[in-house]
Each structure stands twice: as C-alpha cells, then as structure tokens.
Design brief:
Elements: H1 6-10, E1 15-16, E2 19-20, H2 39-61, H3 65-83, H4 88-103, H5 107-124, H6 130-145, H7 149-166, H8 172-187, H9 191-209, H10 216-229, H11 232-250, H12 255-270, H13 274-292, H14 297-312, H15 316-334, H16 339-354, H17 358-379, H18 385-394, H19 396-406
Antiparallel strand pairs: 1-2
Helix pairs in contact: 2-3, 3-4, 4-5, 5-6, 6-7, 6-8, 7-8, 8-9, 9-10, 10-11, 10-12, 11-12, 12-13, 13-14, 14-15, 14-16, 15-16, 16-17, 16-19, 17-19
Length: 414
C-alpha cells in the first residue's frame, strides 16, 4: 500500500449528526527511499507499516473502531521512532487518530490530536498547504459538532480561503469547506444561507463525481435544511437519494444509514404519518445502538427523537425513560454545561409540564435556562445583528419554554 495511503483509503466518509468530519489529504507523502545505508531496516519498517495499515483499513470497514484505533496508535509509535515526531507522515496519522477518537466519542482527545497535527503541518508544510487546510477544517468541524460555533467559524473561513486559492473554486475540498460553513449557518438557524452553500457544494460534487456518486452527507444535510424550512417533499426526496447512495457506499448497516432513517422519521412526523415515523425512529435507534454502542452521543440524539415522537402523541410513559437516557449520555460525554445536555433537560421539563407535574418541571427549567443563557452569551456576540434573532429562533420550542417557564416563579411552569 502507498505510504500512508491510510489517509486516503481509511478515511472513508463517516459522519456524526450528518457531518463529514475527516477528509483525505489532498497531497500525500511518498514512500521513503529504501536505498542506501539503512535500506534493509527501512524496508522492514515500511513492510510493518503496510501490514498495520491494511489491518486498520479492514477494521474500519468492519466497523471495529476500537481495534482500528489501537492499530493506528501502533502506526504512530513506529512513525515517530522512524521519521520523528514532526514528520508529515506522523501528522497524517495523528490527524487520522483524531478522526477515530471523534468517532469513539472522545472529543477532548480528538481535539488535542487535531491541534498537534495542525501545528506540525503549519511548521513543516506551510500555512497555505492543502494538508494544513485539512487539519484546520477537521478541527473546525469538531467544534461545529460539539456546539462551539464561535471557535469553528474563523477556522472554516480560513480553510475555505486556502482551498479556493490553492486548489481552485471547483475542487472537491473547496466544496467540503462550503459544506462546513453551511453546517455552521444551519446550527445558527440561518437556513436560507445554509441552503445556498449546500447547493454550491452539491454542484461541485456533481461536476467532479457525477450526480449518482455525490457524498450522501451533502444530500442529507440539504434535506435536513429543507425540513427546518418546512419543505418536506423536497426533504424526503433528498433523504431517499442519500439513503440509496449510502447503502451503495457503506452497506445496509452503518451509522450514516441510521442518521438518514431518523431524518425520514422527522419528515413523516411533520406530515402526520405517525405510524410510519415511529417505525423509522425505532429502526434508526436500533441500528445506531448496534453499530456505535448504547452510550454514543448519536444514540442519545436518536433516543431523544423517539422520545419526542412519543411525547407529541401523548405517550408520556414511553417518552420519559428515553429522555433520561439521552440526558445521561450527554452528561457523560459532553458534560453538564453542554447544549445537548441543556436540550435534554428542557425536553424533560416540557414532558413533566404537559402532565401537570410542575414540581418536577421547575428545577429542570431553571437549570436549562442557565445553560441556554451561557450559550447565548457565548455565541451571540460573534453574530451580526441580523443573525441574532434567527440564532435564538433556532433554539426551538424548548428554548421558549425554558424562559417562559422560568419567569413564572420558583415552581417553574404553572
């Protein structure tokens, strides 16, 4: 296998919450010359690296991310010993390890590795190298998916500027950067702005890959945008197209398949097709638990979606334990100050409020209010005035409930 073809062969498009978080490096290092004084030792190292890379590739394809991570750690140790801690090969593997730890839900480890990879690439390759842009983009996407939008935006813009300048306006990596910015705008409730960037990214992919081979992630993200805009038929059509593409690329069971199923469930909920929606919610959750394990952050999202489906139909006993599980997962992985944790608190409060259990709802309302206030204070100063209202609206009904309930006194909603 080509020296660190790991970056291209292993970095199959994987997603959390619809986000493509790691990309193949635009330029990859060449196989070290094994001629000369240490050629025999270098050949042994190259053979061992190739063996480990092949095993890691097989582990990723089989969904064995923990095994792939251990193999990538071995690759990194061997590269650091053979080439040094600041070599481009080493940076490639560090970047890949960051991806694996993200997939495993260890976001602190993922961030520290991504920062290390970025430092190496800036120093060794330069500030405007395509691989440097990849590290910048990957770090930004980590921040997008963990709700740190203010940190993410300047990085996404920096990666886009590099790619447009070095690679061109129609390069696939430029399209990825447009996709990343669209995700950021979507997270802020700027859905029309996000839509235009998703469409630009999709156009670049169709131009480079053909309409049948575009990334299913782009299709699905655009579908999610249309759900928020209320264009349910458009959303369903794109999701079904994404589902077909994803099955061709990943097979019948994959975390991205679960994501698309959950999105289709939301479409059907909004169209009043509750029986069909329930089946899709359950299918998405079951698949995610099988592929990712029962305590992955994405599983928490599917638990919450199924709980909301039950709550909106008045099945409170079905919804309550699902919300509590989602809350526990968010607290364990992201902490009690995170947006997913606050969202789960608010939904539980709404559940109890709808049942008239105000003494249970009140403490949850107040805690959710504090978390929302922190997020507003952290994010809104970085927004243009015209973007602040859509950002607040993007927080949804739970946000409105939190503040209206908290304002009614110590008992919460009454």
């Amino acid at each position: 296998m080509h020296r660190l073809a790991l970056t291209a062969a292993l970095l199959m498009p994987m997603v959390i919450d619809g986000a493509l978080i790691t990309e193949a490096a635009t330029e990859q290092p060449q196989v070290p010359d094994t001629q000369g004084k240490n050629s025999e030792i270098e050949e042994l190292v190259a053979n061992e690296l190739e063996r480990l890379e092949l095993e890691a590739h097989a582990a990723v394809k089989a969904g064995l991310l923990k095994k792939a991570t251990k193999l990538a750690e071995q690759i990194l140790a061997l590269e650091e010993k053979s080439f040094g801690p600041n070599h481009p090969y080493t940076a490639n593997t560090i970047n890949y390890l960051s991806f694996l730890y993200y997939e495993l839900g260890d976001y602190e480890k993922s961030e520290s590795l991504n920062l290390r990879s970025l430092d190496i690439r800036e120093e060794v390759l330069g500030l405007e190298h395509p691989d440097t842009a990849t590290s910048i983009y990957d770090l930004a996407y980590l921040y997008v998916n963990t709700g740190k939008l203010a940190k993410a935006e300047p990085l996404l813009r920096r990666a886009l500027v590099i790619r447009e300048k070095v690679l061109g306006l129609d390069h696939l990596d430029t399209g990825r950067s447009l996709y990343g910015l669209a995700k950021l705008y979507e997270g802020r409730g700027l859905y029309s702005k996000a839509e235009s960037l998703y469409l630009r990214a999709l156009s670049i992919e169709e131009k480079n890959m053909g309409a049948k081979n575009v990334w299913p992630h782009t299709l699905q993200s655009l579908a999610d945008c249309y759900i928020e805009l209320g264009f349910y038929e458009k959303a369903e059509s794109l999701s079904l197209r994404a589902l077909a593409n994803a099955k061709d690329k990943f097979g019948e069971e994959h975390q991205f398949i679960a994501l698309v199923l959950s999105s289709l469930a939301e479409v059907y909920d909004n169209q009043g097709l509750y029986g069909k929606a329930g089946l899709f919610h359950i299918h998405a959750l079951t698949m995610a638990e099988k592929v990712l394990g029962p305590r992955h952050l994405s599983v928490g999202g599917y638990l919450s979606s199924l709980a909301s489906h039950y709550m909106n139909r008045g099945f409170y006993l079905n919804a309550e334990p699902l919300y509590w599980r989602a809350l526990a997962i968010a607290e364990q992985i992201l902490g009690p100050e995170s947006r997913p944790y606050g969202t789960s608190l608010n939904k539980l409060a709404m559940l109890y409020n709808d049942q008239g259990l105000y003494s249970k709802a009140g403490p949850l309302v107040r805690r959710g209010r504090d978390i929302e206030l922190m997020r507003i204070q952290r994010e809104s100063p970085y927004l243009a005035l015209s973007e602040r209202l859509p950002f607040l609206q993007s927080l949804g009904a739970a946000h409105e409930f939190t503040f209206s309930g908290a304002s009614r006194g110590s008992s919460g909603a009454k």
